[in-house]
Amino acid sequence: MTVSVKDVAQAASVSVGTVSNVLNRPHKVSAATVERVQAAIEELGFVRNDAARQLRAGRSRSIGLVVLDSANPFFAQVARGAEERAAAEGMAVLLGNSDQSPLREAAYIDLFREQRVNGVLLTPTADDAAAVSRLAEASIPLVLVDAELPGTPVPSVSVDDLEGGHLAASHLLSLGRRRLAFVGGPLSIRQVSDRLAGARRALEEHPDASLEVIGQDAMTVLAGRAAGEAIARRPASERPDAVFCANDLLAVGVMQGAALLGDIRIPADLALIGYDDIDFAQSTVVPLSSVRQPAHEMGAVAVDLLLEAVASPGDPPRRVRFRPELVVRASTRG
After folding, report:
1. Which residues are paired to 157 by β-bridges?
2. Rounded to whole angstroms, how far apart are CA atoms 135 and 126?
3. Which residues, including other chains, have CB under 8 Å from residue 5's CB and lie 6 or more apart?
4. Do 197 and 162 meet the contact criterion of CB atoms below 8 Å apart?
5. With the C-alpha atoms ordered 266, 166, 173, 328, is the resulting torsion angle positive or negative?
6. Longest dimension (CA), the chain
7. How do residues 230-240 score in pLDDT, each as one tens digit?
8. How far apart are CA 31 and CA 29, in angstroms?
9. Partners of 291 in the beta sheet?
10. Cα(first)–Cα(last) distance of the chain, in Å?
């Protein structure tokens, strides 16, 4: 059986990146760690993989990253985590913004193929295998970020959005709110549909509660503001008493729209929770409750998974799934 870099890392109790440094930049690692890794290499009989050696030798020093919206602070943090981790390996990250468009996503993937990047980190616009096929044809490793594609041999790093949606809706229900609304972008985006499904699961435990879906074409502040203004135009008796937004940008917009057009008090009249826990969430006029994702760590882990895929291309794909965390602030605290 072929011994991989991951096997060496596990035997030496270090990260894959540390093994890479020992093999290529030992001056960056302590003498004790170098000795421990080299002992593991000798014990396991590890032989360097040509593809991994070429990657680390700098035949190509770039990684492609395609996200749904580079203006979203969540994806900015993902990119930062990926850039910092890639820089430690002597590589650079090329960022592309699909703007939730499958056509733009495909264009970036084709561009990265032409640039002969070492690999691609992708937050897909939809659950299809087209991107996987295009990259597989060019023998370019792929790692999914903030998403999974079941049934495909693709590593991924994601958050359990079903649990996240359940956390958000359960929190609103625990406050005694029963007329809930979900404000989200296109349901073709897996993260959005999973968060909605998680919220619906929470409502199954409360038959006296309802959930209205207020769809939007985008996941932006302006889209959220439009939803907030529409809610504010309704008679008070017909408004939801709680809103769960598919991301924090939408939630900020809902807060703005409700305040601009209506005398709606948050959280007294409308409890509001977002998703992602971007830095801005805690500094809004009414600090925003949110479901936290470890964005920076997700970007760094995605690069690690890519390195593993290059170093050991025959290994089964590794899928890392983080658990979301509920962060309660004034927009639901009351």
Report:
1. 145, 320
2. 16
3. 16, 19, 20, 46, 49, 52, 307, 308, 311, 312
4. yes
5. negative
6. 74
7. 999 999 999 99
8. 6
9. 326
10. 60
Q: How does 280-295 read in b/e, with b if 16+ C-beta sit within 10 Å?
A: ebeebebbbbbbbbbb
Q: Look up residue 269 and give its DSSP letter.
A: T
283 DSSP assignment: G
Kindly state the average pLDDT of the residues 289-311: 94
Give the residue among 157, 5, 194, 164 at the shortest CA–CA distance from 81: 157
* Contact (Cβ atoms closer than 8 angstroms) between residue 105 and residue 144: no
Q: Indicate if the alpha-carbon torsion angle 56, 62, 67, 73 is positive or negative.
A: positive
DSSP code of residue 137:
H
Q: What's the Cα-to-Cα distance from 209 to each of 176, 181, 204, rounded to whole Å?
A: 10, 11, 9
Distance between CA atoms of 228 and 255, rounded to whole angstroms? 7
Residue 69, CA distances (Å) to 72, 122, 259, 270 in order: 6, 12, 26, 28
266 touches 272 (CB < 8 A): yes
Residues 329 and 165: beta-carbon distance below 8 Å:
no
Question: What distance lies between CA 25 and its chain's CA centroid?
Answer: 30
Read off the tokens for 310.
């290059």
**In DSSP terms, which residues pair with 319 in a beta bridge?**
156
Mean per-residue pLDDT, 28-49? 84
Does residue 325 have a pLDDT over 50?
yes
Beta carbons within 8 Å of 45's beta carbon, 6+ residues apart: 3
pTM of the model: 0.79
Q: Which residues of 118-152 are buried (b: 16+ CB within 10 A; e: fewer)?
A: bbbbbbbbeeeeebbebbeeeebbbbbbbbbbeeb
Instruction: Please state, in angstroms and as integers, the Cα–Cα distance from residue 92 to each residue in 68, 119, 205, 310, 319, following that order.
Output: 20, 11, 48, 16, 23
Write the secondary structure of 139-198 as one string of H (helix), E (strand) and C (coil).
Answer: CCCEEEECCCCCCCCCCEEEECHHHHHHHHHHHHHHCCCCEEEEEECCCCCHHHHHHHHH
Looking at residues 7-22, what average pLDDT do you find?
88
Beta bridge pairs of residue 273: 244, 289
